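Ex. 9. Protein: Dimethylargininase.
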Amino acid sequence: MSESRVPRLRRFLVCEPRHFAVQYAINPWMNPDTRVDVDLAQEQWTALISAYRSHGHSIDRLEPVPGLPDMVFAANSAVVVGGRVFGSLFHAPERRPESSHYDLWFKTAGYDVYRPGSVVEGEGDLVWTGRYLLAGTGFRTTREAHREAQEFFGHPVISLTLVDPYFYHLDTALFVLDDENIVYYPEAFSPGSCEVLRRLFPRAVLATRDDALAWGLNSVSDGRHVFIAPQAEALAARLADQGYEPVPVDLSEFHKAGGGIKCCTQEIR
Ligand code: ARG
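Predicted structure tokens for Dimethylargininase:
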């Protein structure tokens, strides 16, 4: 297990949490009575960006918009593979207006944005493995959107059904370590979907419910460094045994909205 893991430098799009709050409840983690410490949220988010930068990753930023408290969750606004941008259509009406701001950012940066006809929440549910897109459905993104994504990208899209409302986006139950391997929490998936993952990734790291509840599956890996919630200590230790280097980043304020490290990070490929 002492293979040396090679990081690949990434380009991430992020959005500062200046207007972050929990004002509505669209997943079981959210309670509108919860007070968010905005200063702490800013500090935690800034620490994430510093961690990315200090590991060589480049950061693009989009201006946050008042009245869109979930806009910090950049992962949800698109999925970009090979420079092609597949935009989002949010499930919750509260989040729908985010799309036009992200689309404008992409257009200004020189990209065409595909507008989907069916509900899809970007990298929250569409996870690029390097070979295909793993695609979550059950709570947010629709199967129709999976089909659209396959037509758009021409890459195989593997539909997976999520069954636990706490893990309502695929990126809360699974993340990609490198071109070969992934980590996932099997019980978040229907039995058939679980079997599909087992066949595709026989050597995957299997996480526990505790790892998932600690936001350990909402991690970002560059192939070597794994930016991971410090609450997911047990999972981080297992990844370290396999030659990965965990980089703990605490986004506890964002957990109150049902989000973590990956949710705040969109990769531009
Ligand atoms: N409050 C947001 C929502 O429910 C959190 C989004 C988290 N993002 C993610 N990629 N899982 O939509």
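Check your answer against this statement. The two ends are 29 Å apart (CA to CA).
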